[in-house]
């Protein structure tokens, strides 16, 4: 069977939407207490999340603030940024992605799901290491509600909340131990996390790779719809910045 072709909607036009720059909307909104800031550039504390948020229209001064905030030689993850990087800044990672939003999820609590907290972090980090759902750090659990499913006392699946633009919450860190895949655990946890988000009067959303057609098909079957294309990338600040590089001059 040939791979399914995914049609990606054009990015919305007009007024800026919180989901157009969700990391910035989060760090200037509900997640402001996690923010480190220099000028118009914000990032999460380094043990919480790797994401750094640029303004919608980064200037030379903004790129200089990025360099000053993270330091020479540091790798900077940039969620959703699709513009150019300054001269001398190496792009170390680039992945086309899609953003999906709730369009009729059958959100519901799950009787087997348990709330995870700081005491569960070692097991959560171990599960993430084995399944690679995306960045998860020692304090990521503080970003929102994380739910897990245990079998024989062992954590075998989890999902939780990450970015939190006003009125919206991202579902992230969805992962299942390879020995327990095929049981629908990820779908159940997504719907359970979505239920909690809905209960707060907010709307669930999530991201995935644009090439991950199986995941997109699953999310659509649960009641998500594609909203826009995006990009996940990272760039490395030069070890030795010239005045022009520090200022973001190309």
TrEMBL record:
InterPro entries: Acyl_CoA_acyltransferase, GCN5-like_dom, GNAT_dom, YpeA/RimI_acetyltransf. Pfam families: FR47. Keywords: Acyltransferase, Transferase. SUPFAM superfamilies: Acyl-CoA N-acyltransferases (Nat). Transmembrane segments: none annotated. Residues 111-238 form the N-acetyltransferase domain. This is Acetyltransferase.
């Amino acid at each position: 069977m040939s791979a399914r072709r995914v049609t990606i909607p054009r990015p919305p036009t007009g007024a800026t939407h919180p989901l157009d720059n969700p990391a910035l909307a989060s760090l200037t909104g509900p997640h402001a207490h996690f923010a480190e800031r220099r000028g118009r550039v914000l990032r999460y504390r380094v043990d919480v999340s790797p994401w750094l948020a640029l303004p919608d229209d980064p200037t030379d001064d903004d790129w200089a603030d990025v360099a000053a905030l993270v330091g020479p030689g540091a790798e900077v993850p940039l969620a959703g940024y699709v513009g150019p990087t300054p001269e001398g800044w190496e792009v170390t990672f680039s992945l086309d992605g899609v953003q999906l939003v709730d369009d009729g999820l059958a959100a519901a609590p799950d009787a087997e799901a348990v709330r995870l907290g700081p005491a569960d972090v070692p097991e959560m980090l171990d599960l993430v290491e084995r399944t690679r759902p995306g960045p998860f750090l020692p304090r990521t659990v503080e970003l929102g509600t994380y739910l897990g499913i245990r079998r024989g006392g062992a954590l075998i699946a989890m999902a939780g909340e990450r970015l939190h633009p006003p009125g919206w919450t991202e579902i992230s860190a969805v992962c299942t131990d390879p020995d327990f895949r095929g049981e629908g655990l990820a779908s159940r946890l997504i719907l359970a996390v979505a239920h909690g988000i809905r209960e707060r009067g907010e709307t669930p959303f999530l991201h995935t790779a644009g090439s991950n057609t199986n995941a997109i098909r699953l999310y659509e079957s649960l009641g998500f719809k594609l909203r826009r294309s995006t990009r996940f990338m990272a760039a490395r600040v030069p070890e030795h910045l010239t005045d022009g590089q520090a200022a973001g001059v190309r």
